[in-house]
C-alpha cells in the first residue's frame, strides 16, 4: 500500500521553499542571467558577489562564496545549476556548525529559559511552540509573563499556558518584570517543574530604560540561582535584514544570548541575513519560522535552508 501522507519534514520543506521564494528568486534569477551569458571570470564573480550581498548574506561571506565558485573554473563555461549547487554547498558549510537544537538539561531543575527580542518578532508563538514540545515530552512547565509592558502580551501567554497545560505566573500590566521572573522561579521550584520560561518585554535595542529592565531581570534570576538563566534565546524577525545584526549584538551584551530563533522568513527577500549572523556570531540557530502558526516553526536544518535559499529542489 502506498502511503501518500506528507511527512512533517516534507510539509515544512514545502513551506520553507515557498517562504523563501523572494530571497531565492533574487539569487537564482541573478545566477541564471549571469552564467547563461558569460564565462566565469573576475567580472562575473564580482557580479555574483553583488547578488549575494543584495540577499543580505554579508560582504565577507559573499566574497568567500564567490572565490570558492571561481576556484579552478576561470574562463570556463559553467551551468547556472552548477553555480547554485556550489553556492548552496558553501552556505551549508557556514550554517552546519550552528544548526543545533535547544537542549534542556535534565540535570538542572528548574531549567530557566529567558526569551528576548523586539515586539512583533514572534516571541510569544515561539514560547508556545517550546511549551507544547516540552509538555508532549511529559515535562512540567511554568511560564512567567515578564512582558508586563503590554497587557495583550500577558493575555497571549495565558492562552498558550491554557492550551499546553503549563502553569502561568503573572502580575498586572505595568508591574515590575523582574518581580514576575522572581515569582516564576519560586513557583517553578514549588511545583518541582522541569522548565521555567520567562517572557520579557519586546524591547528595541535602542531603548535604554527597557534594556536596563532586562538587565535587572537577569540579575534577579542570578541572585536566586547563579547559573540562571541557563539559556537565553533571542527571537529575530528576518524581515528587518541588517538590523538583526545590531539586535544580536545589543541583546548579547545585556542578556548573554546563547541561541537564536529566526521567524518570518516567508516575508523577506533578505533571508540571507541568517547566513551573515551565523558567519559573524557563530550562535546556535535552534528554530526557524515561515508563518504565524505553531507548526510553521521547526528545527533549523542547514542543508534544507541552504538549498531553499538558492532555489534548488530537495
Keywords, separated by commas or semicolons:
elongated, alpha/beta, single chain, 8 strands
| Amino-to-carboxy terminus distance | 24 Å
What's the main sheet like? 8 strands, mixed
H-E string? HHHHHEHEHEHEHEHEHEEH
Alpha-carbon Rg, integer: 21 Å
As a percent range, the share of strand residues is 5-15%
Mean pLDDT: 91
Distinct helical segment count: 12
What form results from the Cα inertia axes? elongated
Helix content bin: 40-55%
Q: What structural category arises from helix and sheet content?
A: alpha/beta
Low-confidence stretches: 1-5
- How many DSSP-defined strands? 8
How are the strands of the biggest sheet laid out side by side? 3-2-4-1-5-6-7-8
Overview of the structural elements:
- With 314 residues, this protein is α/β, with parallel strands linked by helices.
- 51% of the residues lie in helices and 12% in strands.
- The chain contains twelve helices and eight strands.
- The chain has helices spanning 8-19, 21-37, 42-54, 59-70, 80-95, 123-136, 151-164, 177-190, 208-224, 243-255, 273-281, 302-309, and strands spanning 111-116, 141-144, 167-169, 195-198, 231-237, 259-263, 285-289, 297-299.
- Strands 3-2-4-1-5-6-7-8 form an eight-stranded mixed beta sheet, with helices on both faces.
- Helix 7 (151-164) links the parallel strand 2 and strand 3 (167-169).
- Helix 3 packs antiparallel against helix 4 (59-70) and helix 6 runs parallel beside helix 7 (151-164).
- The radius of gyration is 21 Å and the shape is elongated.
- It starts with 7 loop residues before the first helix and ends in a 5-residue tail after the last helix.
